[in-house]
Amino acid sequence: MTGWVIAFVLAALAFVAMLFIGRIPRSAREITAAALLLGLAGYAWQGHPGLAGAPRAVAETKGEAFDEAQAEKRRGLAERFGPAAQWMMLSDGLARQGKTKEAANVLLSGLRDSPDDANLWLGMGNALVNHADGVLSPGAEFAYRRALAIDPAGPAPRYFYGLALARNNQLQGARAMWAPLAAGAPAGSQVKAELEANIARIDAMLAKGDAVPQ
């Protein structure tokens, strides 16, 4: 019943507003009233005024939870400074809120301004993987390869492209990315130890035939 009351009150308020604020002429008042009544009839036909209101839960946003440790490692390997940093910070902020599509779109805007920035391409690859729940999509793979082509000597594209390949069970590809990176890492560094441990696990899995053919 509450729905009917609200509908009639709104219709009456609208009519009064048109009379005294809109100052509709006398000749148009009957047509205006008829239009409002037609709207009420449509509400009675299509609406459900007798139903109680019920809040609706917002559907979960697609994408993996934001990985702070991975973002910190990326900043350590790549874009802590420079024009890419601002775009990456904005993208990370959106990803923290679960807005993975918007996070990728921000980087796309950055790439329109700086199409040859390896850090932005790397960030795009990571953002697309995150948006796809960890799946290495063709778009993400293209982004990683562009980052590698622009900065072939940089550690970050190899590291994160290899990580995405490993998480998608493309172990041979991951090893190919990580082996030269591990060889060139400073002796005793955490990155070198991590990469060597990862490569050892990959070699063990390859020996058992656990890799996807590539």
- Shape summary: elongated
End-to-end separation in angstroms reads 65 Å
What is the architecture of the largest domain at the second tier of CATH?
A: Alpha Horseshoe
What fraction of residues sit in β-strands? under 5%
Decide which structural class fits the backbone: mainly alpha
What is the CATH first-level class name of the largest domain?
Answer: Mainly Alpha
CATH superfamily of the largest domain: Tetratricopeptide repeat domain
Low-confidence stretches: 41-46, 53-63
H/E series: HHHHHHHHHH
Which fold does the CATH topology of the largest domain refer to? Serine Threonine Protein Phosphatase 5, Tetratricopeptide repeat
Q: If helices are DSSP runs of H or I spanning 4 or more residues, what is the number of helices?
A: 10
What's the domain count? Answer: 2
Tell how many strands the DSSP assignment holds. Answer: 0
Helix content: over 70%
| Alpha-carbon Rg, integer | 29 Å
Q: Averaging pLDDT over every residue, what do you get?
A: 76
Describe the main β-sheet briefly.
Answer: none
3D architecture notes:
With 214 residues, this protein is mainly alpha-helical. Helix content is 70%, strand content 0%. The protein folds into two domains: 2-46; 68-207, Serine Threonine Protein Phosphatase 5, Tetratricopeptide repeat. The chain has helices at 2-20, 26-46, 68-77, 83-96, 100-113, 118-131, 138-150, 155-167, 171-184, 190-207. The protein starts with a helix and ends in a 7-residue tail after the last helix.
